[in-house]
Design brief:
By secondary structure, the protein is α/β, with parallel strands linked by helices. The chain has a single domain, classed as TIM Barrel (Alpha-Beta Barrel). It is 35% helix and 17% strand. It has 7 helices and 10 strands. The chain has helices at 36-45, 55-60, 62-72, 91-109, 125-133, 174-187, 195-198, and strands at residues 13-14, 23-31, 49-52, 75-76, 115-116, 138-140, 144-145, 152-153, 165-170, 191-193. Strands 2, 3, 4, 7, 8, 9 and 10 form a 7-stranded mixed beta sheet that branches. It has a 3-stranded parallel beta sheet with strand order 1-6-5, with helices on one face. The chain is globular, with a radius of gyration of 16 Å. The two termini are 29 Å apart.
């Protein structure tokens, strides 16, 4: 699966969560838009979502996102300022891009991002240094892709397991994809949880 890499030795870069609890983690990245149907679905079912939307997208849908934050506890994390592939940039460029993403999300949401997800899943040692310097606790990847209503695991297996970090996007298909995840989780005795509840934010510095 594109974008999935093994965790760094110090566990700063993760693609799943080590836990004995029967939980999975839904993360939703950038996409075309946040529809009213999607908003209603997330609100009505209280889906706990870790959001990696771009600052421009969060600002454009400010009212809907802020309402979801209040109604569901959704968290807002860093996916860069402009969706550039950070692994092709210098350390200084990565630091500027990531720190700007922090600043712009905080201006809209009034809360500091805790995690970073590099666009396309590409990262290197400079990305770790830059993310830490910007005060981010971890780089969060994923080990399951669920866009389009199908569940694809990085390990080639099927279904969901506890600790999985699932990637989706803000597309028209998001409600149906979330429904597939919800049904599969229920079948396996799993529930959705917020990453911040299992990976408490800590101030990082590099």
């Amino acid at each position: 699966m594109a974008g999935v890499r093994a965790a760094a030795p110090d566990d700063y870069v993760i693609d799943h969560v080590e836990t004995k609890d029967p939980v999975i983690f839904v993360t939703v990245d950038d996409g075309s838009h946040l529809s009213r149907e999607t908003t209603q679905y997330i609100r009505n079912l209280r889906v706990p979502i870790t959001t990696f939307a771009l600052p421009e997208q969060v600002n454009r849908h400010r009212r809907r996102f802020v309402n979801l934050l209040r109604q569901t506890g959704m968290t807002f994390e860093n996916h860069t300022q402009t969706h550039r592939t950070v692994s092709s940039m210098s350390y200084a460029g990565q630091r500027a891009e990531i720190c700007a993403g922090n600043r712009e999300i905080r201006e809209v949401i009034r809360r500091q991002p805790a995690f970073f997800r590099p666009p396309g899943g590409g990262w290197n040692d400079d990305t770790i240094r830059a993310a830490k310097k910007c005060g981010l606790s971890r780089i969060v990847m994923w080990n399951v892709l669920a866009d389009g209503g199908t569940i694809v695991r990085a390990d080639g297996d099927s279904g969901l397991r506890r600790g999985d970090i699932i990637l989706l996007h803000y597309l028209d298909s998001l409600p149906s994809s979330l429904d597939v995840v919800r049904r599969e989780a229920s079948k396996r005795g799993l529930r959705m949880a917020l990453l911040r509840d299992y990976l408490p934010p800590t101030q990082s510095a590099g």
